Amino acid sequence: MIKVEDVTVELSGLVVLRDIYLNLEPGLHVVLGRNGSGKSTLLKTMAGLVKPVKGRVLVRGVNVHSLPRREAVKLIGYTWQNPYAGFVEATVRDELEFTKRIVGVDLQRDIIDQLIPQRLLDRNPFTLSGGEAKRVSIAMILAIDQPIWLLDEPFDYLDSSGVEAVIKLITRGVERGKVVVVASANTAYLHLLKPHSVILLSRGVVTFEGDPEELSPSVLEEHGVPSRELMCG
Ligand SMILES: Nc1ncnc2c1ncn2[C@@H]1O[C@H](COP(=O)(O)OP(=O)(O)OP(=O)(O)O)[C@@H](O)[C@H]1O
Ligand SMILES: [Mg+2]
User: Fold this and answer.
1) If you measure from the C-alpha of residue 135 to the centroid of ligand 1, how many angstroms do you get, rounded to a whole number?
2) Class of domain 2-232
3) With contact defined as beta carbons under 8 Å apart, do 228 and 217 qualify?
4) CB under 8 Å to 151, separation ≥6 — which residues?
5) N or C: which end of the chain has fewer CB within 10 A?
6) How does pLDDT run across 174-218, given as a tens digit for each residue?
């Protein structure tokens, strides 16, 4: 469903992603790597928000960078690492209306209800707490119900009920045939997510792609990712 072909990305003259090849089928894929390894840039490139200097990203056979924004948003849900980055309206309710109007589809009510408490609907999104903002930023994009979800550090700021709600959402999405990609700087959620594949990024290069069971603690530590053992305490 998503093919990343020989992609190199430069930002401000620096190579941030180098010669990336990926072939992502429906299922859950986790992108791991230390801070600054290029996870967010990879997700933004797959979403069509960052243009590679070399190579291309094909989504269902179409070059994502040739798609009009409105079409890309219907196909790919990208949720920002910084939850406040996508807010533009004066209230949460208006954010949801804005998404609906711009994309031209009905939003999935159950996704909104699972993540956004009613009491937040009339709040200014910029005044929300970190976890509240994360919930809104995820719900207002994923409620479009795209076949592809790219989630950048979706568990940041969330309490245990928020983590549970997002994991349920991801699991349901995968069951319904979506491609779901989660970017994470640590392995803490690997055992909860049970991904089909793990992609390890190191300084903009893919150093491992495959079965998470094949990731040894030493390989993880080598790449600056805390090992499962360490995370479990
Ligand atoms: N606009 C930019 N100009 C210059 N460098 C940039 C720009 N955007 C990102 N970078 C750099 O590119 C590298 C990759 O950034 P990216 O945000 O993709 O990393 P990440 O793996 O998501 O990190 P984190 O775990 O902190 O979220 C970093 O060194 C970052 O400082
Ligand atoms: Mg990031």
Assistant:
1) 23
2) alpha beta
3) yes
4) 79, 138, 166, 170, 180, 181, 182, 183
5) C
6) 999 999 999 999 888 888 899 999 999 999 999 999 998 888 777
Length of the chain: 233
The per-residue pLDDT for range 40-72, each reduced to its tens digit, is 999 999 999 999 999 999 999 999 999 999 899
**Reported pTM:** 0.95
40 CB near ligand 1 (under 6 Å): yes
* Helix (H) / strand (E) containing 179: strand 179-184
**What ligand 1 atom has the least distance to the C-alpha of 13?**
4
Q: Name the residue ranges covered by the structural domains of the chain.
A: 2-232
Given CA atoms 40, 43, 44, 45 in this order, what sign does their dihedral have? positive
Which ligand approaches the C-alpha of residue 45 most closely? Answer: 1
Dihedral of the alpha carbons of 195, 198, 199, 200, in degrees to the nearest 10: 130
Question: 45: CA distance to ligand 1 center in Å?
Answer: 12
Q: Which two tokens stand for residue 134?
A: 């994360």
